[in-house]
Design goal:
The protein is globular, with a radius of gyration of 17 Å. Helix 4 (about 115-125) packs across helix 6 (about 150-165) and helix 5 (about 140-145) runs antiparallel to helix 9. Strands 1, 2, 3, 4, 5, 6, 7, 8 and 9 form a nine-stranded mixed β-sheet that branches. Strand 3 (about 60-65), helix 3 (about 65-75) and strand 4 form a beta-alpha-beta unit. The chain starts with 15 loop residues before the first strand and ends with a strand. The chain is built from nine helices and nine strands. It has a domain at about 10-135 and about 150-180 and about 235-240: Rossmann fold (3-Layer(aba) Sandwich). It is an alpha/beta fold. Pfam families: Methyltransf_25 (PF13649). Keywords: Methyltransferase, Transferase.
């Protein structure tokens, strides 16, 4: 089930197109409900958490990677980062105003995806929000990285997990937005370094498929202002507990 052509029952087909960037999507949703205490599930090195903290939010980052948490703590010493999983978050029930997954739900084991979203909803206070942002299996960024890792199926499974929670009435869909994220790179090496930061286990695949990767890079990049640009469509489900 590819998200390039969403299944007829997928909520993605009903997403409204917006012209915005990922930070604005998250920040605007949080400001709208006057949220302040936020959890970033799959925070990585803490870049988005730091941007939101600079905008006045109290952000706690959670990530299963000890290496990522260590780096996040070094880079953003004023923020709180905790090693743990979204499925079993080391956080108190009902202790936050909102939580979000930024391109991280599809990294959760498929069998645990619904549990991860529900756990996020549990640690959020009544009336709070859970945002799930996921990349679609479409766009020049997706096509360029496909020789390294084809995430078509896993991204579709993440979307399906969210749709199941909406469909059975567990969570209420407040809004669903779709936009394009533009990423700029100085070179193919810069692009592969980014892919490795997201998932170090891609190293072997990058080496093994270097010829195909270089070809996909050439066929999909657009040169703008002396840098190579790749576009990735994203969707954001804004959810709340019923």
């Amino acid at each position: 089930m590819s998200l390039d052509r969403p299944h007829k029952n997928s909520s993605i087909a009903r997403a409204r197109a917006v012209k915005a960037d990922t930070f604005s999507i998250i920040a605007n949703a949080l400001h709208k409900v006057q949220a302040r205490q936020i959890v970033d599930f799959g925070c990585g090195y803490g870049e988005m958490a730091a941007r939101l903290a600079a905008d006045g939010f109290d952000v706690t980052g959670v990530d299963p990677s000890a290496e990522s948490i260590e780096q996040a703590r070094k880079s953003h010493q004023h923020l709180s980062f905790i090693e743990g999983t979204a499925e079993q978050p080391p956080l108190e029930v009902g202790s936050f105003d909102a939580a979000y997954f930024l391109n991280s739900l599809h990294h959760v084991p498929p069998a645990d995806m619904q549990q991860a979203v529900m756990a996020a909803a549990t640690i959020v206070r009544p009336g709070g929000l859970v945002l799930v942002i996921e990349p679609l299996a479409a766009g020049s960024f997706f096509r360029a990285m496909r020789p390294v890792e084809d995430e078509s199926e896993i991204r579709a499974l993440a979307a399906h997990a969210v749709d199941m929670l909406i469909g059975d009435g567990t969570l209420k869909l407040v809004d669903l937005q779709r936009w394009d994220r533009e990423s700029k790179f100085q070179s193919l090496e810069d692009f592969t370094d980014y892919l490795l930061r997201v998932d170090p286990q891609r190293s072997e695949s990058i080496h093994k498929n270097s010829v195909q990767l270089a070809k996909a890079w050439r066929e999909n990049v657009t040169i703008r202002e002396n840098s190579a640009s790749l576009s990735q469509p994203l969707v954001c489900w804004i959810l709340t507990r019923r």
